[in-house]
Amino acid sequence: MKRSTGQAPLVLAWALGLVLAAPAPSAQATQAAQAVAAGGGRMVLVRTDRQLPVTGDPIWELQLLLPGQPPRAYEALVGRVRHQQGDRDRLGSKAPLPRGRYAVTEISPVAPTDDVELGRFLWIGLEPAFPTARRGLGIHHDPSAGRGRSSGTDGCIGLIHGNDLLVLGDLLRRSGTTELVVKD
User: Fold this and answer.
1) Is the N or C terminus of the chain more exposed, i.e. has fewer CB atoms within 10 Å?
2) Contact 102/182 with Cβ under 8 angstroms?
3) Could you say which residues of the chain have pLDDT below 50?
4) Do the Cβ atoms of 102 and 125 come closer than 8 Å?
């Protein structure tokens, strides 16, 4: 069953432009922040060694690196647990995003008529900056994270905690960050 309570205040906070607290970043995120040029921020997606306890989904880390600010990190699921080693360039593979650079194309609220697996917060559209058959990629909340067979995504970055998506969307909007680098 999908969670539906407690989301309206979070969406309202995002719409009003309120910045909410983010979890502490890993040492990896701290080191990566030093590599960000003074120009603008960027996001970096890396695989971790951690897994969700019930489903075994690998936990990925989406790092937000903004010049002059401490790095932020958000836990995510990317693809389905059984497809982690799949062809990352094949459309419909349910594998993680292919390695490479992506541009952020939009930040928009998820409509009530959108697929329930997109969560009920935001959609952050991504466009690969390299040739691949993959399309329709983005960052969204994964409301089924750790909840059986539907845990994980069809290939997008699904943040485990919906509040993190609201914080990320606000920070991207405020900073003008438009780049994601998928490292693994």
Assistant:
1) N
2) yes
3) 1-39
4) no
Indicate the SS3 state at residue 30: helix
Alpha-carbon torsion (131, 134, 136, 140), positive or negative: negative
Q: How far is residue 91's CA from residue 8's CA, in Å, rounded to a whole number?
A: 34
pTM: 0.76
pLDDT at 147: 79
Residues contacting 84, CB < 8 A, separation 6+: 58, 95, 96
Contact 102, 178 (CB under 8 A): no
Amino acid 182: pLDDT: 94
DSSP code of residue 90: S
- Name the DSSP class of 28: H
* Maximum Cα–Cα distance across the chain: 44
Per-residue model confidence (pLDDT) at position 86: 67
Contacting residues for 56 by C-beta, under 8 A, at least 6 apart: 81
